[in-house]
Amino acid sequence: MRINFRCSGGFGNLRLACDVDTDKLAEASADELSELIESAGFFELTQADFSETPYGAADLVYYYVTITDDDKRKSVGCNDATTPDRLRPLLTHLRDIALANSGFSP
Fold first, then answer.
1. CB under 8 Å to 103, separation ≥6 — which residues?
2. Taking 60 as the threshold, does the pLDDT of residue 105 lie above it?
3. Selection from 17, 11, 5 nearest residue 65 by Cα
4. If DSSP codes are grouped into helix, strand and coil, which group holds residue 62?
């Protein structure tokens, strides 16, 4: 499975990114990511799962995720105000990976 993650925005205009290939991860790490994707129902998400950004919302962090698994491919974009609760653990985990890859720790 391949995962492309980007996030940007917020008060400090944070910019983070990571590309993950689960075939190149330790088994435990790959399993953890697979479980987060499954529990988020990532491939079943529809536009109806995302709220609208409230009027006047500022300093939001925007997230962009594309996951490819065999013949399945899905991309989603959301922000702090529109993200469904079930997707938050996956976004947090991917953000932590991107932070670690950038030399910072969460």
1. none
2. no
3. 5
4. strand
- Whole-angstrom Cα distance, residue 91 to residue 72? 19
Distance CA 81, CA 97 (A): 22
- Alpha carbons within 13 A on the beta-carbon side of 23: 5
Q: pLDDT tens across 19-58, in order?
A: 999 999 999 999 999 999 999 999 999 998 998 888 888 8
Which residues pair with residue 9 across a beta bridge?
Answer: 14, 61
Q: Which residues contact 82 (CB under 8 A, 6 or more apart)?
A: 50, 51, 52, 53
pTM for the whole structure: 0.90
